[in-house]
Amino acid sequence: MNAILIGYRGSGKSSVGRFLAEILGLKLIETDAEIVRKTGMTIPEIVGQHSWDFFRDLESEVIADVTDEKNQVIDCGGGVVIRPQNVEYLQNSGVVFLLESDPEDIIYRIGRSSNRPSLTGDKSFTEEVLEVLEERKPLYQAAADYVFDTSLDSPRTVAGKIASLYRKIQEA
């Protein structure tokens, strides 16, 4: 059984994922890093030279591959829930934990990172975050088994809570 983290960019998946893997003694798989490794290109390069659809195709391939393995923490890219087959792979391979945060916290955390290309291309940074969060919220909630708010607790604290729940589920 895998521990799978989903949520919007800046919700804390990477930080929580590192602590969660450490606490549980499991391998950490970051799907965006796997895509970069597989292509030898950064995400902005992939999207700029090809398209978001091309990136999503790569993401679906990576999800299908990584969910074949068990006993790992999978930190998914923010858009993984856009494609229903990705959600199906994730749900069938483990427990899906949604990390949520206040939009203001997300905006502060991700800033204008060059590692995160625009998703819409035609809105201000803040407008884009608010719009995409609203669009994806039902997809995240439908995919998740459990939801954790990362606005108030440290990543280590959130990881500890998830680890405790994950262990209880494993024992059941």
What does the secondary structure layout of this molecule look like, with pairings?
Blueprint: E1 2-6, H1 13-24, E2 27-30, H2 31-39, H3 43-49, H4 52-66, E3 72-75, H5 84-93, E4 94-100, H6 103-110, H7 125-143, E5 146-149, H8 155-171
Parallel strand pairs: 1-3, 1-4, 2-3, 4-5
Helix pairs in contact: 1-8, 2-4, 3-4, 4-5
From the spread of the alpha carbons, the general shape counts as: globular
Q: Strand-residue fraction?
A: 5-15%
Number of structural units classed as domains: 1
Q: Which class best fits the helix and strand makeup? A: alpha/beta
Commentary on this structure:
The structure is a single chain. The protein is of the alpha/beta class and 172 residues long. It has a single domain (2-165), classed as Rossmann fold (3-Layer(aba) Sandwich), CATH 3.40.50.300. The protein is 56% helix and 14% strand. It has 8 helices and 5 strands. A 5-stranded parallel sheet has the order 2-3-1-4-5, with helices on both faces. It is globular and about 45 Å long. The mean pLDDT is 92.
